[in-house]
Design a protein that fits this description.
4 helices, 123 residues, mainly alpha, 82% helix
């Protein structure tokens, strides 16, 4: 969902309705991920370690959000020309494409780790 929201933002943002749609898809994706992650963590974590696992998830999520915000800000700042108040249109596209790349790397890493975990538990 998040990758799709980034793709929608990269491709279609000439109209306010398109921007609302992209932000809605992004918000739904991030909200869904944030809501589902505790359940996924609790399903695979021993009961004696749930509090530390949830705390670790919170720290990693906070660092990820901060890093993503910093990278997005850096891209948009680099795309703001001298004497201009707002970034060029290409800076927004670049930021969305970087987001798509991050989602692709995250998805592939998650699938590889899930496959590895599956092969360890089912020899």
């Amino acid at each position: 969902m998040v990758g799709g929201g980034f793709a929608l933002f990269a491709a279609a943002r000439s109209d306010l309705t398109e921007l609302f749609a992209a932000m809605g898809v992004l918000g739904f994706g991030v909200g869904g991920f944030s809501a589902a992650m505790p359940g996924a963590i609790l399903a695979v974590t021993p009961k004696s370690e749930t509090s530390s696992a949830m705390s670790f998830n919170y720290v990693v999520r906070s660092v990820g959000y901060s890093l993503g915000s910093a990278i997005g800000g850096l891209i948009l700042t680099a795309g703001t020309g001298p004497g201009h108040l707002f970034p060029d249109d290409s800076a927004y596209t670049t930021a969305a494409l970087v987001g798509i790349g991050a989602m692709a790397i995250t998805t592939l890493t998650s699938l590889a780790l899930a496959r590895r975990r599956s092969s360890e538990t089912n020899p």
